[in-house]
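Appendix B, Record 12. Input sequence as logged:
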Amino acid sequence: MKQLISLLFLIVLLCLSACRDRSIPILDDTTCQEECFIFEGQVMDPNNDVPVQSLIKVEFKRHPYLSFRVVGELETDSLGQYRFALNGRDFLFPNGEFKLQAFKEGFLTNSYDGTLEFHHPDSSQFDIPFAADLLLRPSANLQFTFKGELEGISDFRYRYRYGSTGFVFRVLDEHLDVAQVFEHEVAGDQFIQLSFNYMKAGQKVEKTDSLFIAKGELGVYKLEW
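Logged structural output:
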């Protein structure tokens, strides 16, 4: 019985997904005059406190179980400012969600700072602009390696953080190797916060450090046990 219910649920989701293209229009301009969902704001590089001329995409999905679909995109002006005006009646779904994201070559596209989501839009929000300022951080690369023997090292975890974005990784014991190199795309023109946790000869060890990496550069950190 449970398998049948699961199968029916999957069929419903597939049907909804297949039908979404006919119910969500594609934005062809920004000339909506009334009963509009309006998004306006500015894209900034917070590390250097300067505006970023960039591409803005607006995506929408009718239900949390469905995928976002691009419904419009435009370029900001030279000051990073932009404005979208969407026909509100086309997007009145009880569980609908808008997502705005900024893109620029040489800047991070996976940063939480560069994405905004607006849930459950309704007609009470027509013609009232949503404040939609976005942050784009310049990209750089972080690379770190091990320095010294790995004998007695186990349960190794590391974390790096920039702005409001942080990532945690665990390296399986069988993959620990003195020749191992880890590399990640991170934010540039700022300090990257690093933390390491591992067991050494049965004792828990925690280390923290930071590394400044300029935009477009590779920062190399060697972890000493």
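The chain has one helix and 16 strands.
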